[in-house]
């Protein structure tokens, strides 16, 4: 072990000691950005960046497990990403499918698909459904995998499901319009029944939301990290948690 490794480990331990368990987020959501730029930096195929990003996602879940984070949401593929060229999209979907299978086979986490499965290729949708079924009884950390996800699409789907529910009950449209609440819509989101994210982390230096959890992140704290996702380190995660713990959450008040 070199001197730099020793210094890194000591710094990480010092960061971890600074974390207050009482101010730790219960739900962490992550935008895994920068995989393609990481690959370009090495002159490597784009798929190698996505593969490195998938490996980092598994490593990240291990870090969250160690700190008893209850819920983690990974933004893996947006509805906009589905318009990427086929020579990039097909390998990317294969990498995502491999990641989902690995998460399910680990038996450590409950895997929950977050997204519009009907817009995905049948094979990808099937892998997601099988992972959810296989881990349904796992009681440990809940891992949302956002694949084929769009924030506006989610809200539209939730409203559509709510209207359909009342249509089946015979509720007049005028009555529904007069009584509908934010809680009614929330009950039909992809993440229904889950706590909203306390902390949203975005890698790669970009500072935008990209439609990620538009409804759920209304009062979330954001942390933007310069590192490209495959280069995201344990100390970067600890810094994000330290930053979160130092903030006074106001929940819009």
UniProtKB/TrEMBL annotation:
Can you tell me which residues bind Mg(2+)? 33, 221
| Entry annotation: catalytic residues | 33, 81 (proton acceptor)
Q: Which UniProt keywords apply?
A: Magnesium, Metal-binding, Transferase
- Cofactor section: Mg(2+)
Cited InterPro entries: UPP_synth-like (IPR001441), UPP_synth-like_sf (IPR036424)
Question: Which sites bind substrate?
Answer: 34-38, 50, 78-80, 84, 202, 208-210
Cellular component aspect of the GO annotation: plasma membrane
| GO terms (BP aspect) | polyprenol biosynthetic process
Note describing how the cofactor binds: Binds 2 magnesium ions per subunit.
Tell me the subunit arrangement: Homodimer.
Q: What does this protein do?
A: Catalyzes the condensation of isopentenyl diphosphate (IPP) with allylic pyrophosphates generating different type of terpenoids.
Kindly give the HAMAP family that the UniProt entry links to this protein: ISPT
Its name, as the record gives it, is: Isoprenyl transferase
């Amino acid at each position: 072990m070199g001197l730099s490794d020793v210094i890194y480990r000591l710094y990480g331990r010092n960061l971890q000691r600074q974390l207050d368990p009482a101010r730790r987020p219960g739900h962490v959501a992550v935008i895994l950005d920068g995989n393609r730029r990481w690959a370009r930096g090495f002159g490597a195929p784009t798929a190698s960046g996505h593969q490195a990003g998938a490996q980092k996602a598994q490593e990240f879940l291990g870090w969250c497990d160690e700190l008893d984070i209850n819920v983690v949401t990974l933004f893996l593929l947006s509805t906009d990403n589905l318009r990427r060229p086929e020579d990039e999209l097909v390998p990317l979907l294969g990498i995502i499918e491999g990641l989902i299978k690995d998460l399910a086979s680990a038996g450590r986490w409950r895997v929950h698909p977050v997204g519009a499965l009907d817009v995905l290729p049948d094979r990808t949708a099937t892998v997601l459904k099988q992972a959810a079924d296989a881990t349904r009884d796992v009681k440990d950390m809940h891992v949302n995998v956002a694949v084929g996800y769009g924030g506006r699409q989610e809200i539209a789907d939730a409203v559509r499901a709510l209207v359909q529910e009342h249509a089946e009950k015979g509720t007049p449209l005028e009555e529904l319009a007069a009584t509908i609440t934010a809680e009614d819509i929330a009950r039909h989101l992809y993440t229904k029944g889950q706590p909203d994210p306390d902390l949203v982390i975005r890698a790669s230096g970009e500072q935008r939301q990209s439609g990620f959890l538009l409804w759920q992140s209304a009062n979330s704290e954001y942390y933007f990290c310069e590192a490209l996702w495959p280069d995201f380190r344990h100390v970067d995660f600890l810094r994000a948690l330290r930053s979160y713990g130092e903030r006074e959450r106001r929940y819009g008040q």
